[in-house]
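Lecture 7, part B: from sequences to assemblies.

Below are the input chains for today's worked example.
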Amino acid sequence: MYDTSDIKKNLKIKLDGVPFTVVEFQFVKPGKGNAFTRTKLRNMFTGAVIERTFRSSEKLEPADLEERQMQFLYKEGDGYVFMDTVSYDQLSLSAEQLGDNKWYLIDSTNVDVLFYNEKPIGVTPPTFVVLKVASTEPGFKGDTSGGAMKSATMETGLEVSVPLFINEGESLKIDTRTGEYSERVNLKR
Amino acid sequence: MPSRIAVRDLAGQPDSTRVCVAGRVVALETDGFILQDDTGCAQVLGAPQPPLGAFVQLVAKTDGGALVDVESETTFTHGSERFTRSDSDWGWLSGARIQNLRTRHKLKRVVERYFDAAGFLEVETPAIVPCPGLDVHLDAIEVLGMRGPRWLHTSPEYQMKRLLTTGVPGIFQLGKAFRRGERGKLHEPEFSMLEWYRSFADAEAVMRDTEQLVAQVAQELTGSLLLPGLHGQVDVTPPWDRLTVAEAFARYADVALADVLSDEETYFQTLADQIEPQLGRGRAVFLTEYPAPMASLAKLKESNPQVAERFEGYLDGVELCNGFSELTDPHEQRERLERDQELRERLGRSVYPLDERFLAALEEGIPPSGGNALGFDRLLMLAIGAKHIEDVVALPAMRV
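Predicted structure of the full complex, as structure tokens:
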């Protein structure tokens, strides 16, 4: 069993027999009152996001999920197609089921596909992925104040804040736990 | 050699000015590199490439904010590959966070100026105390190696109130408070609290202090009476709106205050889920007239002892401060603290001793007083639009 202090992003728990993944959580403590953890949970069957507040004394049941490494092949309509590299079995997951993780899929990425009672219900991406910058305001020439950031759209459509010296076409390491820029990957030019 | 200037100021220099700049090499380019100091980044063109992550000091000429014609370049290499680690202190602090620390420094000065002008005395009371406070839902951090049991205080209120026995008109303290197990977007186990007491005054007077102080902060940091807030702008023009706890339940909650008063957990959950997020949206507000069971160290209202002269200030759904007309009756104070001890015992929480010195000070007598405790880190967050407390402190608990 988990305590509320174990709650973190992507933790998988079971509520009334349904597996949920933690999308967001917040420690709240109204003036001089009890502590609560307010969460947004994604139903791993339907993709629907619900809000749920846990009292600090509550226990949470872990969701028993099986993970299998598969390769992301391509996007087809609303579906994302994955292949088992040993058996060549293929399966498809919807954008709702993938949630934010859909931003980290580029062709041939290996990811862990999650199964609940033999049914595929989501993926766990690697902690870091390297994505190319598809578009961002043009580079800079030193006119920056206080290490300011700008917005960049990555090749998968993910929006991230990046330092001003980042240019289009460059490769960036993204932390999939937070969706934030981690560092520029210096590829030989 | 010209004296060192900040990267931020390069853009203001005419082209071809000879300058000295020092900073870290944060990226290598085909024709030079990017240099960053604590104020910003600049491109250095046509220079020999130092190792990525090294500190360099160079003398060069300005060109549209960039640096060219490097005439001397000294490289200070560091001993390891730490730079590339995504959890480096450099990576954590550079950019917006170092900027936030500058604003924090400025905010401290504004606070000091406000209380100076109001004739308050700044005090520093001990952080290590024998009785850390009996608030039912706060846990203290124990300090070992002392003569007797000691804790870090969860708030400096007992010690500060003892100083009121002198009849001093006002005291304030900006210092750390410590609460075990509190970590989140608005919580750090070690955080900065601005606490002040005004004697021969009441809660109304410290509410006015709060309004005036926050208005002055807004004026000096943003040039207006609007703070960016965490989700949206907040107007802090005094006087702020007042809303009683009963009115807040009636307006925002699906249960009536009277129905949840006997069930503390439901009361607090309703407050956390349905009421607090709505408070101070667009305009700062004081929540007032707390039900007597939630009086804490506040005096009960003479005209209506069902409620206490306790208030909390909310901006953009964030609880900024908690204040009282201070309870000065030593007998009632002792009864309440003993009740808190029993409640803590029942809930299985550590039971801290009564602060007999604090109770003795009330016996000696303190003037009628108003006091307030304000989250300094939260004020900074609201003033600059930071979404996480970790972004406004130098090194949060998780990086210590």
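Note for the exam: Residues 95-98 of chain A form the longest helix (4 residues). Keep this in mind when comparing with the next example.
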